[in-house]
Amino acid sequence: MEMQNYCGTSRIAGCSFSIYPMADRFKAIILEALQAVDTSKVWMETDDVTTLVRGRIPHVFDVTSAIFLEAAKGGDHVVFNGTYSIGCPGDSAGDVYMAEDETKMNFHNAESSKLETASKFSLYPLGGGNYMDTIYSQIENMRSRGITVSKSHYSTRLDGNSIDVFTGLEHVFTETEASGSSHTVMTVTMSANSPSAKGVIK
Fold first, then answer.
1. What mean pLDDT do residues 124-141 have?
2. What distance in Å separates the CA atoms of residue 29 and residue 153, rounded to the nearest whole number?
3. Which of 155, 180, 189, 198 sits at a 20 to 30 Å CA gap from 72?
4. Residues 195, 201: contact at Cβ < 8 Å?
């Protein structure tokens, strides 16, 4: 059978992610986080492996960051693993949400969060564009907001307040797409409340 690539009808973004609470009540933590977040401006689907969120870039990052914050706010060690993507190839399901404005529905609840996180991200501009200067400038912007940026094999490490980190990641993703990359992918792994960070695990 001949394989075909289908381009979406708009620049809809998406994130396929999983949340891993290191706690006995992990199921309740995940479900409560999903239910507590306002997802009215995104298309969302959850199965037994991942949750998929699709819509405009600001709302995709708003929802994914809010779900992570909700899951981690109780102090349990929680890990977020997500893949953000925008561009061809892709389908058009969920394009109706592109009509939404850019007002974030959850940021006003999350902006006061003092949750410290450690994360690693990798960026893959698959469709060209002058992206390296964009990435470097956005990394400097993260440093100016107090995020510690360090090198890691196959990724870049970010340590700092969770909202600042997610905001920085959104800016990197948005500016890379705007620089001319027709298909941009970014992978993110983020950890909060880790006992190893407190020296509990040697």
1. 80
2. 31
3. 155
4. yes
Is the distance from CB of 36 to CB of 106 less than 8 angstroms? Answer: no
Residue pair 105/38 in contact by the 8 Å Cβ criterion: yes
- In sequence order, what are the residues at sequence separation of 6 or more whose Cβ sits closer than 8 angstroms to the Cβ of residue 17? 50, 51, 53, 64, 67, 80, 81, 82, 83
Tokens for 117?
A: 């996180």
In order of 18, 20, 47, 154, the CA distances from 50 in angstroms are 5, 11, 6, 23
Q: What tens digit of pLDDT does each residue of 57-73 get?
A: 999 999 999 999 999 99
Q: What is the pLDDT of residues 25-50, one digit of tens each?
A: 999 999 999 999 999 999 999 998 99
- Over the chain, what is the mean pLDDT? 86
Chain centroid to CA 25: 24
* Alpha-carbon span 140 to 42, nearest angstrom: 30
* DSSP line for the chain: --------SS--EEEEEEEEE-STTHHHHHHHHHHHS--TTSEEEE-SS-EEEEE-HHHHHHHHHHHHHHHHTTS--EEEEEEEEEESS---TTGGGGGS-S--SSHHHHTT---EEEEEEEEEETT--SHHHHHHHHHHHHHHTT-EEEEETTEEEEEEEHHHHHHHHHHHHHHHHHTT-SEEEEEEEEEES-TGGGT---
